[in-house]
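Re: (2S)-2-hydroxybutanedioic acid structure - here you go.
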Amino acid sequence: MFEPIERVPGDAILGLIEAFNNDSNPDKVDLGVGVYRDEQGITPVMRAVKAAEQQLIDDEKTKAYIGSHGDPEYGHFVLETVLGANSPVLAANRASATQSPGGTGALRLAADFIASQLPGKSIWLSDPTWPNHLGVFSAAGLNLEKYPYVDADNRLDFDGMLAALKAIPEGDVVLLHACCHNPTGFDLSHEQWQQVLDVVRDRGLLPLVDFAYQGFGDGLDEDAFGVRLLAENLDEVIITQSCSKNFGIYRERTGCFIAIARNSEDMEDVRSQLAITARENYSNPPAHGSAIVATIFNSPELTAMWREELGEMRGRINQLRQDFVAALAPHGLDQRFAHVAEQRGMFSYTGLTADHVAQLRDKHSIYMVKSGRANVAGLSKDNLDYVCNAIADVVK
Ligand code: LMR
């Protein structure tokens, strides 16, 4: 029976991890998969996370199931962090949190929820978007459509985006990146979010906001501007959240599906469906990551420590963006790559072509996604000149 099964290529992003590990060049640089790296190239366990884990070893009483919605304390803290502690949406009891195995798990819950409860609705994705969005939503059987996001000159194409949103059939789902757009790093201004809100409201669209990088752009509250604008001005919103990046707990698979409904009655209806969706997929989410997050939020000291370290990570990335453009100036390339300093989050759509990316890899052992997406956090003071020399070599 297995004989006709074809071998398929592995995931393009995750495959880079293996290719990088197998490269023996001591100067190799990993700008591929989206994990934060410090100046030494290490993805550290955050100090607050370590302290919380130490506490958990002593305090954890059981490993029994935590239920399909996960840890209620975790859900409460996530809702407050995403929507703001004083959110009118929370005061009206309109928001429900279902803990998920990572942000990807939350996306799959959203996809299954749309497929089963909103049949016939297409989902509209930015072009480009995180490649796995295509995988997750099509695996759930949804019809995928796209709206433009960058133009041919590698700039945010907001006019194109808005025009396309205006033409989406009423009631369809539109996926928006809350901040730190993956893969491009181009984010919307406050005015542009306002215009998106107007179109979404006029067309009666359901926004699904992917919020995987809160705190990596301009700050925890600053990065939530668009999410909160939509949540406070629309009846219904879905948010998929992740703690992978901002707590650095990638492998603990810690995320959340958030549904905002017109009123608490509708919210409970939706919530009841989500418990079934979770149950049918994986029954209960893993508990260690959510316990870490809840332990941190329960301690003012650990919360302060976490916020400080997150601020350091954000500051390092934003500084690297400036340093990168400056280091390209001697090559006469600072104008060509000036957008890198304006983009936000872990990623930059550099504008390098697939051919450039292949040359960077083959000649210089520098790894990035074929689309030209680079993980800025993979740069460091030590490798910056090496990377910039290599870029100058391949683009000339
Ligand atoms: C990325 O885009 O590199 C990250 O979100 C990791 C992943 O799972 O693709």
